[in-house]
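Posting this for the archive.
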Amino acid sequence: MSYLNNFKYDVFLSYAHADNKTLNDSEDGWITQFYKQFKLQLDRYLDGTNTAEVWCDHELRKNYAFDDRIEKVIKNSAIFLAFTSNSFYRSEYCCDKELAVFYQTATEDDNLGLKIDDSNRLFQIQLLNKPHAQWPKEFQGVGCYEMFRYSNPNSLKRDEDQGITLSPELDPKEYNNRILEIVQDVSSTLKLIKNKQVPILANQPKAKKVFFSKVAHTLIPLREQISKELEANNISVYKCELPPPYDKDEHKREVSEKILSSDLSVHMFDSIAGDKISAGYPNTFLQEQALIAKGLKKEQFIFISQELDFDKVDDDNHGKFLSNFLTEKEQDARYNLIREFSVPGIVDHIKDKLIEPPPLPPIVNNSSILLDFNEVDFKYAFEYYNSLMLENRKIFLTIPGTGPLDSIKKFEIALKEVNTVIIVCVTAAQEWLKERIIEIIRAIRTEKSGILKLSVYRDSKLNDLDLNTLCQFI
């Protein structure tokens, strides 16, 4: 599943087949090596439980053809990474079709636009130097990431120097730093897109509406507190102040309209009956609004204090009115009389009625793994990560934090998502390994994690640890 909800693919990699060729077919080409390291690092820098969906179809490139399927992939991708080179610009598919389709979709067809704040959804990754003046129109105004080094760093005529593509073997430090820069900018852009998507999601639940009837003057402060709490929970409240000045028929028409447009009708009563509609009419406005909702067979809550004794209400008609709601409930009526008069209690009743409970957390798949490692062991973690990917395992990666406390917090969050942890510890200090194991055992003991299996990967071997024993001694 992609990191973003509104896109099937988070990142599309566009490159020329020639830039991924090798002399030996069993070896990974430049693009494939970049993809593997980019994917691993990107997954680490993204928050949440979903990892990035990166489109990089290595097999298709061997018999490359631009067809409807690839066009759909591009149109369903949030970010476009173009690996520019002489081969890229010679390819009518890469430059004239893939790049053109994404640019048109982002600028004309989707609602997001090419830029999110100051971040561009189009990334140019230069494998060889090409002067800015020679860039196609799609790249004008777009920055670039140099995955090359100049042949002559001291030359004053850099525009004439095509450069040399960085090699993960010959330039490992510079190569890794450049990839990390791209990863950080891509992850930041994806997070910006995710934040922009929230208000426009098609399945975003609409705010529920409550009709809150007129109440006695003694209950106005209570109604105000309840209304604020409901609105804080995305429940809009219409507080009825009718009437005066309406007469009986006009009052009924206005109240009926508001009740029918609401999801729930809420009424509160104490011993005060309120103002009568007219001298010759038995009901007060408060009572009438409850009867209107009842007659409309609308979902209705009537809240009355547990301490209120209907037989001891000074106004006999009001006491009888409340008693009738309790004892003469029609078969097809949709109201509930609730003896509750506290703000939290009333709010909870309304929320339980209107707000669907959140879905249960997904059952963690037995193959879900948290791959944890210290930065000094990145090389070994990278190799082991790719071997796990070949087994089609669901893998979560430790997200780097901004400091020690932030790193621990993110580690605790990650532990909730899996039931298996593999710690890569080849050159990291044993003290670091011990601290990680202690954190895992603490999470298990406090029921913050459901870890069932813990292993340590070192010296090309995977060693399982006995959780029961560790829980007894740590």
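Residues 59-64, 198-204, 359-365 have pLDDT under 50 and may be disordered. The first helix runs from residue 30 to 45.
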